């Protein structure tokens, strides 16, 4: 089968790989129909996750590559003997988080830190979804039937982007009706934060980015104000928009120091700073200024424990996810899709969908 394989920093190859097989009784093998590229995949490509090579060497000490991808929709080809909730032919959403459902952390709904070999493993510690077939462990707990009323593109977004935005941005940010919210970073997850924040009726959502096209999209999707941080002082502008009070919730959705700095300077006393971005380097935490402000600062990896709710919200029309999809590519053009996604600003790209 064809697959996109990571071999090291700035080295990915679209090549032939063996079709996966059932290894454990709780596995399923899925024929992919749609997948996507995540900012996390680009982070891996840039060398943010060297642990992939270190943990995946064979007995001769050689890293033989890792198939990327942790999102997608597909049709079940085969299930292991222990799988009870799914059968061959079912069309399913593949969660980015695999969970055993029985360990200490799973019992706390901390599925991203499953202690029995689950968590975020697909496209990371095991081969992922940017391939014609994928093996998914813990199938009963890690797949969702795709409702007939829901389009496949929305199903792909429910693998990761929407649950991550909702849980790590909106829920961790404790957004309530009437709150003021600033989202720093208008990429797919930042936009997901905007869409899912609207479910909680905040009075003000300020989107901050350097891309005019993305800011226009944010305005069209419900942002009350937008700020281009390349053209104006984002901190001053937010303070002006909030009568010098700051926001109840600041969501960092990029993962670099400048966006973190904006967030820690615009959150009001008693507010929430929810970090969603994946940081590859340390940032300065201004504890000397923030210790007195009674803030709640959260970090996290998605647990996908709200996926069921988000599926229902999509089916009801409350989450217009189609607005996030800007490009479609055939699987054979996956290399081109990577090039477009890496140059998202020039290509006016948000979420790219790969069709098999």
Explain what this protein looks like in three dimensions.
Helices cover 28% and strands 24% of the residues. It has 356 residues and is α/β, with parallel strands linked by helices. Strands 3, 5, 6, 7, 8, 15 and 16 form a seven-stranded mixed β-sheet that branches. β13 (267-275), α11 (287-290) and β14 form a beta-alpha-beta unit. α9 (234-241) runs parallel beside α10 (257-266). The termini are close together. The mean pLDDT is 96. InterPro entries: ADH-like_C (IPR013149), ADH-like_N (IPR013154), ADH_Zn_CS (IPR002328), GroES-like_sf (IPR011032), NAD(P)-bd_dom_sf (IPR036291). Residues 188-303 form the Alcohol dehydrogenase-like C-terminal domain. Belongs to the zinc-containing alcohol dehydrogenase family. This is Zinc-dependent alcohol dehydrogenase family protein.
List the topology elements.
Blueprint: E1 2-8, E2 11-16, E3 28-36, H1 39-45, H2 51-55, E4 66-67, E5 72-79, E6 91-94, H3 104-107, E7 133-136, H4 139-142, E8 143-145, H5 152-157, H6 161-171, E9 180-184, H7 188-197, E10 204-209, H8 212-221, E11 225-228, H9 234-241, E12 247-252, H10 257-266, E13 267-275, H11 287-290, E14 296-298, H12 307-315, E15 325-330, H13 334-342, H14 344-347, E16 351-355
Parallel strand pairs: 9-10, 9-12, 10-11, 12-13, 13-14, 15-16
Antiparallel strand pairs: 1-2, 1-4, 3-5, 3-7, 3-16, 5-6, 6-8
Helix pairs in contact: 6-7, 9-10
Domain Alcohol dehydrogenase-like N-terminal: 25-138
InterPro entries: ADH-like_C, ADH-like_N, ADH_Zn_CS, GroES-like_sf, NAD(P)-bd_dom_sf
Organism: Pantoea osteomyelitidis
């Amino acid at each position: 089968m064809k697959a996109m394989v990571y071999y090291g920093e700035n080295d990915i190859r679209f090549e032939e790989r063996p079709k996966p097989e059932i290894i454990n009784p709780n596995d399923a093998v899925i024929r992919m129909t749609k997948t996507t590229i995540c900012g996390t995949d680009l982070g891996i490509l840039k060398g943010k996750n060297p642990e992939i090579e270190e943990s995946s060497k064979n007995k001769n000490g050689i890293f033989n590559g890792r198939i990327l991808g942790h999102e997608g929709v597909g049709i079940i080809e085969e299930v292991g003997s222990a799988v009870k909730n799914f059968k061959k032919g079912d069309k399913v959403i593949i969660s980015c988080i695999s969970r055993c459902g029985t360990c200490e952390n799973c019992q706390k709904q901390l599925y991203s830190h499953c202690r029995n070999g689950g968590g975020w493993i697909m496209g990371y510690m095991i081969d992922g979804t940017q391939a014609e077939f994928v093996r998914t462990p813990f199938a009963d707990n890690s797949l969702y039937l795709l409702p007939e009323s829901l389009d496949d593109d929305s199903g792909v977004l429910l693998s990761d982007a929407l649950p991550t935005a909702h849980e790590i941005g909106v829920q961790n940010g404790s957004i309530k009706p009437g709150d003021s919210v600033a989202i720093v970073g208008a990429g797919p997850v930042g936009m997901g934060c905007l869409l899912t924040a609207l479910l909680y009726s905040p009075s003000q959502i300020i989107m901050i980015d350097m891309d005019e096209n993305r800011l226009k999209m944010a305005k069209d999707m419900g942002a009350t104000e937008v700020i281009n941080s390349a053209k104006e002082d984002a901190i001053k502008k937010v303070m002006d928009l909030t009568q010098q009070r700051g926001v109840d919730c600041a969501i960092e959705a990029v993962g670099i120091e400048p966006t973190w700095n904006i967030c820690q300077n615009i959150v009001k006393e008693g507010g929430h700073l929810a970090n969603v971005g994946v940081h590859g380097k340390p940032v300065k935490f201004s504890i000397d200024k923030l210790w007195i402000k009674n803030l709640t600062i959260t970090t996290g990896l998605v647990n996908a424990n709200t996926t069921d709710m988000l599926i229902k919200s999509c089916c009801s029309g409350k989450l217009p996810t189609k607005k996030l999809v800007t490009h479609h590519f055939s699987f054979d053009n996956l290399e081109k899709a990577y090039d477009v996604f890496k140059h998202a600003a020039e290509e006016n790209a948000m979420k790219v969908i790969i069709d098999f």
